[in-house]
Design goal:
The complex is a heterodimer of chains A (178) and B (650). Chain A is 35% helix and 24% strand. With 178 residues, chain A is an alpha/beta fold. In chain A, helix 2 packs across helix 3. Chain B has 650 residues and is mainly β. Chain B is 7% helix and 56% strand. The longest helix of chain B has 15 residues. The two termini of chain B are 47 Å apart. Classes of the chains: A alpha/beta (178), B mainly beta (650). Chains A and B meet through helix 1, strand 1, helix 2, helix 4 and strand 9 of A and helix 1, helix 2, strand 1, helix 6 and strand 22 of B. Strand 1 of chain A pairs parallel with strand 1 of chain B, so a sheet runs across the interface.
Chain lengths: 178, 650
Amino acid sequence: MKTLAKLLQVLVTVAVSLVLCTGASSDLWSRDALPEYVIKAGYLYHFGQLTEWPQQTEATEFTLCYYGSELAGKALAGLVHKKINGQPINVRYIDDAASAKACRMLFIAETDDLRSKSILRESARLPVLTVTDSPALADQGAVIFLRPEGQKLVFEIDNELAKQAQLTISSRLLRLGK
Amino acid sequence: MKHKFALCVCLSALISAGSVQGAAESSIDVTALSIEQLLNTDFIPASRIAQQISDAPSAVSVVTANDIKNYGYRTLADVLNSMRGLYVTRSFDYEYLGGRSFGVPGDYAGRIMLVIDGVVANENVYDQVFLGEDAYLDIDMIDRVEFVPGPGSTTYGNSAFLGSVHVTTKSGGDLNGVEVEADFGSHSSQRKRISYGKQFDNDVEVLLSASRYEDDGVHVLFPALDGWEPASGDPYSNQTVGPFKKNKNDRLFLKGRYGNWSIEAASVSRDVDNSTFLTFLEPADFENNSKIRDRNSFVTLSYHSDFGAALKSSTQLYAGQYQYDSSEVTSADFLEQHSTGRWLGVDAKFIGTWFEQHRILFGAEYRNNYQQDFSETLTADYYEGYVDGFNSRREIYSVYLQDEYRVAPQFTVTTGVRYDDSSKNGDALSPRIAFIYQPFSQTTLKLSYGKAFRYVNPWEVYSGFTPEEYDKEQVTTSEVVWQQKIATHLQLTAAYFRNDIDDAINFFFNEQKTNGHELGVDYLTEKGWSARFSIAHQDTRVDLGDDPINAPHFLGKLNLSTPTYGNTFIGGVEVQYLGQRMSTDTTEVDSEIITNLTLRSETLIPNARISLTVRNVFAETREDVLNDWVLLSLPDNDRSVWLQLEYKLQ
């Protein structure tokens, strides 16, 4: 009974706090800062610009695939009407390894589940530029690993993997990577 | 009761009054920015449910640096106490970790291992891990903490018995400048810290940190001691006495990386002063002075290298030292104790990906506990003088192998085994098998079975904890986990586990069987609300007695945080329920509900973080079960305040 009374007291406090807080969201950060996934979408755009694929000129569009967090999907929607090297970007969600062959670039966002590993493994044999922000996938075959460093987002490039996938990453991009 | 309610409403109002509806996310054309500009743009972290990094087939709990700030955690004990199924018991001098139905007070970490950046951090005389002001790391040096339940001996060998706590520290780049901090709180507590971290362009990274903490101790209201009738009356029953647990510590932390080489070193020295300590064995003589000093340090050198695309390696050379000194002086006697533990070792780990569907991890470790010494001297009126102790040492050789086999894209089987051979305790084999199945992209099912062990340590042999023929205790664990994500904002975790402990090393039982059920919910909203709720139920049978000591049937945790005052502040509410449990004489100790509140801002003053935490807002009496046969629990109804001021120079 005593426990119940205590629990009730605590729950009332929490409820009061919750009811009074009607939710909030405004510019918590300095004006120069951008949301994490907006910056990541920007990076993907530039990775596309600064990489050469075999037979890339034959394609009519640039297929940018993603798997994992829906945050990535929301951010990539901002690239839908853009072009990479003259080719319109087609953003696609994939959730199995077989779909990877249709992708030029593949972003695996915030997951290291079994599907992500199998998709990544399948992509490694294809001319697909794989990018991830998941630390657990960084050493599992992704060409580019995006990670926070302090207040900034930085990226690491595994050029050996890129060469195996027949991708040519520009020296400018290689220089900027960690 | 009224003033408590008033206080709570005030705090709630403080957290919530400023809430406003927020602005929409900016719709910027990010392709207009050059890649160089992106590299120089600060990012606003997306709100997310923290995902585990460790490759464990169990239901892992994660606390990040952001959670540490949201809830004003001051020690690793605070962090662990917020996790599903874990609880911290505090005595006069140490914090003990309980979990998975094992909470024998005085038994240091229970049966859980502490791993800091991949290196085992238990000392080698008592197998203790330090969680309070005596812990290796200043809380602000911690990037994330993961609790991996289940047997970890397949990876870590000795002592990873019921689970392991993995601490990842911050790197130089995370600080990117100088941080100075000054904290103040109840009981004249204060902490000062200065840290510097930087990542230089040429692949060089450094982090240095020094901090000091001091307080004046707490006063405790003692209950009547049932059945205790000292000749001179019982002057401490229902009286406030103290101060106890007067703490002081100094910490140093260093981390550096140059290319594939990295080094990490930590040192902590902590003094506890219980100057009005009670001598229960001699009630007529309450004048007592007890002082304890624990000094811990470690250094690790690591080298990473790749042998082609299919083989990666990581080698760690480590050394550590533990020194314990205590003195307890009364007018009747004088007891002095000293322990020294020293160890060094090397661990070489390889990951091979030669075969299409296999990821093979293998390696070998050598650990030399070259000093494990203890001595005690007791001088009393009725003793001539009594000196005893031990000098011990042992070497452990280990090899391990693990294969992660992708049977199908959605199905993995991981099998592993580790063999340890100790010069003193014989050998041990720790196998584990785990099945992970992901039928849908948002659903993961895990099933695992494994064995773990813990060698008898020199202190336990000396104290007669266990018959001499026992070399080690063993546990067999089966676990089923179901994790369901619902979009990115909701995650459900349900787990069932069964532990069978044999040849247990303690005074209370030899065998223990536990069935446990755990449920966790993580929820986020787009407006920045974050909620984490968990409940754990454990049902345990021991061969001696009815219930295990200090192991509650139910534990509950609730953590809520939200931006408020137009996002100038972030408020955090934390509620922790610890169910009824049994003390050492089998009497029940009451359940408790502790509520903590934190309000912080990182935008009120540019480059500064201000944070105010009130712990135990309702001044609830919590009782910590002690390993003392006279005083069964240490009551504490202390409501404390903690103010943190941090300033960054970049």
